[in-house]
UniProtKB/TrEMBL annotation:
One of its GO terms (molecular function) is peptidyl-prolyl cis-trans isomerase activity. Keywords: Isomerase, Rotamase. It is an enzyme of class 5 (isomerase). The keyword Isomerase applies. It comes from Syncephalis pseudoplumigaleata. InterPro entries: PIN4 (IPR043323), PPIase_dom_sf (IPR046357), PPIase_PpiC (IPR000297). Residues 14-122 form the PpiC domain. It comes from the Eukaryota. It holds the Pfam family Rotamase_3. This is Peptidyl-prolyl cis-trans isomerase. The keyword Hydrolase does not apply.
């Protein structure tokens, strides 16, 4: 399964990565946390069925007044130290890949923001 293989062996040390993620936010209520976990696992299943990474979405609860959805957005170039630790640790272990054939974090990464499926597009 190419999507779930991190394969960090042989990666050169990088100080910056061009990163994308699918974020399913957990918010405060326990029901939102359960929903976020369910949604991120559904997104993971779709990725394993070869859905493009940049076409993925995790819907937000309807009573949260914000954007309609979380999506596999590009965060652009990120430097070490600019991300929350669990996200950064996982992201810097990934080999670069493309949205059409992503290598991503499996299992999803939990941070204070929610559950992330992360892929790296480039390193420098």
């Amino acid at each position: 399964d190419e999507g779930s293989s991190k394969g960090s062996g042989g990666l050169k040390t990088a100080n910056q990565i061009k990163v994308r993620h699918i974020l399913c936010e957990k918010y405060g209520k326990a029901s939102y946390k359960r929903r976020a976990m369910r949604q991120v696992m559904e997104a993971m299943a779709l990725l394993k069925e070869n859905k493009r990474f940049d076409e993925m979405r995790c819907l937000r609860p309807s009573d949260v007044n914000d954007d309609d959805h979380d999506y596999a957005g590009s965060l652009g170039w990120m430097q070490r130290g600019s991300m929350v630790k669990p996200f950064q640790d996982a992201a810097f272990e990934l080999r670069p890949s493309t949205c059409a054939a992503p290598i991503y974090t499996d299992p999803p990464v939990k941070s204070k923001f929610g559950y992330h499926i992360i892929m790296v597009e480039d390193r420098k």
